[in-house]
Design goal:
- The structure is a homodimer.
- The first copy, chain A, is about 25% helix and about 35% strand.
- The first copy, chain A, contains four helices and six strands, in the order βααααβββββ.
- Chains A and B meet through α4, β2 and β3 of A and α4, β2 and β3 of B.
């Protein structure tokens, strides 16, 4: 199977993925390890908070977005990782048994100035629940190998 | 123990935390679940990549930052979560057995316009390895309860 290269990420191209179900057990297990704030750990404690009930950590949502984008297109691309993330917005709570979908849009593609075998692709990620309410948006650039660039191909 | 409230986060205040060791098993387990790109999963595959060897997923680093900040001050504060993240920069690879430390600086504190019991605190997080090389920076605002604001106190 031919991998996607920098040249394949034309601005406007869209990748759709999902649904991916998230369970109460996953939400609580993640929180216990990485984000043990009461509203991510315990339904009773969460009820009186701004979230109004148990909700996944925003960082857990980022991890799921990474996995969903990996399964959507990243593992089938000449990805070389990312220098960081430009912006994350947590827009609505993610609840136990939500069915999440991911829409990824190519925003911009530019060659690397220092490495002719590499290009940057800026993506806009939007995650939705089953009611198609956006729960998170995220903007980040990935480094991609360029076609015919030898080692990166 | 009296919780930290919005009023306690004066610009310039610094919280230090760590070290927190990260193991090869943790790096690989995280990658297998959330970011199964070869350079986070397999030392041999990683050797020929830009990372030059096995390195933690940047998202794993974010999760560790969340946990370290929780143990540093968030769990002892009237945190109400965050609307998102302004910027993440992954500056250097995190390797198996790295000893990570976290320095958190209060950048800005402003009251909520819509909720008199809530304020926003903008933090600059810097994560270092044992050689004091910065491996990640992150900027995000947290919502904090204000002192004497009843339910949030």
């Amino acid at each position: 199977m031919s991998k996607l290269h920098w040249e394949d990420f034309e601005p406007g191209r869209v990748f759709e993925y999902g649904p991916r179900r998230i369970t109460r057990d996953e939400i609580v297990a993640y929180a216990a390890e990485f984000d043990p704030q009461p509203f991510h750990l315990d339904a009773d404690a969460a009820r009186t908070t701004m979230l109004g009930g148990l909700a996944a950590s925003g960082w857990h949502a980022c991890c799921l977005l990474m996995r969903m984008s990996a399964d959507s297109f990243v593992l089938n691309a000449s990805s070389m990782g990312a220098p960081g993330v430009d912006e994350v917005r947590w827009l609505a709570p993610i609840r136990p048994d939500d069915e999440l979908t991911l829409r990824t849009t190519v925003v911009e593609a530019r060659p690397s100035r220092s490495r002719p075998d590499v290009g940057f692709v800026k993506f806009r990620f939007e995650m939705f629940n089953a009611a198609h309410v956006p729960v998170m948006t995220l903007t980040a650039s990935l480094m991609m190998g360029r076609r015919g660039a030898g080692a990166a191909a």
